[in-house]
Structure prediction request, 703 residues.
Amino acid sequence: MEEGAINMPHKRRQKAEIEIFPQALRHPQQVSSAQENDHQASSPNGSLIATEYSPSLDQLRATFYHGQVDVGARDGSLQALWQLLFKVNLLLPLRSLLRWNFSDREAARLLQGPSFVTPQETSLDAGSSQQEFIQITIEEPRPHEYRALCAPLLQAALRGNWRAAKAFLKQHPRCVRVAITKEQGTALHYAAAAKRTRFVEELVKLMTPLDLELKTTEGWTALCFAAQSGKVRIAEEMVKRNNKLPCIRTNQGTTPLQIAASVGRKNMVFYLLSATRLEQLSMGERVELFLATISTNMYDISLEILSKDPKLATSEAGYGWKALEELAKKPDAIGSKSSNGLWNKALMKTLAHQLVEALWKEFEKFSDDQSSSSNVVHNPMALLVEAIKVGNIEFVVILLRSNPDLMWQLDKKRGSLFHIAVAHRQESVFTLIHELGTLKDSIASYSLENNNNMLHLAGQLAPSDRLNLISGPALQMQRELLWFKEIKKMVPPSHVNEKNSEGETPRDILMRTHKELQKNAERWIKDKASSCMIVATLIATVVFTAIFTVPGGYNQNTGIPILLNESAFSVFSASSVIAFMSSSSSILMFLSMLTSRYTEEDLRKWLPAGLVFGLILLFISIVGLVVAFVATGSLVYWVNQKIDSTGKYYIGESVVYDANLIPLFACVPISLFVLSHYGLWLDIIRSAYFSRFLFWKRKRRIF
Prediction:
């Protein structure tokens, strides 16, 4: 017989046995040996057997809906059984269906899953006994039925509407723990993911500790979603209810602590780390957590983990080395490029320094230990290469202070660390060469395996990530020429025209690799100059006309401007002259840029400086034009008008405008021009005037 079936065999005028085998309830009960023998073929172990006359389907409806049977039943065991089934909510899903006055077959058809076999009239032979059955198969509702039923609960969880969820759960209390989505997520999963703190607090009160361990198809508990969302209060409520949750893994073997660390939820990581002992995590999980805190810039937590488990730095698997490799690639965290505010920047830099130093000290201690295996400590030069590529000067300094000999270490494939700095255009690292004294000459003269010297490397095109840090092809070309000139001064004269294994000199490589960039630089400068010259020409035309068409007109007898003695007229005259002269000078400057020869010297010096001067003159002309407009407006409304004490202009009895608004409106075009061009100005000024200090000797960092 199928599990979950209620078989009700009955004889006419005789007692019958009722066998109930619910899926969710299995409590053994003593029965007579004769009854056990009669039903051993069809009754599984653990069945409940009670004696009663066969109830009709109407009685079953009453039983399902009211939770009790007819009080006139001869044996009270059936009534107690039905009440017990209701206490465990086994029959609750069928209540809403059986409450209606369906016929036996209609109820069976509508229930789809549960099946009914109604009593049949059969003839009885003399001396024989014939049993008839009413069979009811109690099954769990299908998943899609629960999803449809619990859709309001899911919406309430996502919105954080506890009032609606409370009303729903009052009618369907079992839905607090059932899967309400295809991914087997409960209401708690989605409330935690949606950061609904109050909703979770109230929902957890209705759940058992085991309910909090329910997982989705991916093996995620509700605490995993809380860890990902970063809401510490939600996690606290769950862990307070079930302190085993922090150690429950997903299907991929990930803990909530690792999930929080991987997405950078710092406060959540702090809390879960306090709720989880490191001894409960495997070595692999500790390593993953350690590396995740480094990649998300949580260096204080990384230091705490390392202090609790120093073996992470020197384990045979090289986990500490992986951490150093990760730190070597993070110049924004260790170096001076962080943009998270002065305080955060200083704190991050300090913590990162401490972490690198702590890891490196563990490596040095381990390498000095004679009993340790030599294959654990890797080549520090590999770390330096990664740090130099991204310009992580602070990391380079920390390692070089511990291993100064790395500064002059050479190999045929990569050269020295200064050759790497030249190839990747890292001037902050390259300037360390000045601390070597006379040793820098021998390093600068070193050639690689393909006979490329340092000047050959400077002639090659810079990596795209370094070029893109500079605005515009012209400024990029200018920076490349500055590198070539600086290295040319440092290498021996014999290396300037030395050919490599492919027969190319450094200048040949420079011209070949930068040919496209030089064309783009020329096109970029011409486009900028043409656009700016058009604007400057318009300004010059307008201002020239305004100078000879003064506001207020001229005296017909004397030819002198009528408003000559007004202070605003002097402002108008001066600003018009300044605007005209600056716009004219700007036109000449941009015209000379259009007719330039675009030689190497022009691209390196004259064109960036000319672009700076042209833009400055254009800005001055725009300011002069705006000031002239403000002065003209004041003069026009000065005639036959008056200003009261509040600053309002009157013509007759009508208010024209507020005088204080004139300068305010005048600032709008000037502000727009500055905001749209200040970045370009800074880049051009930096390239034209401050790039000469790019390779200057700086304060000593190593020795």
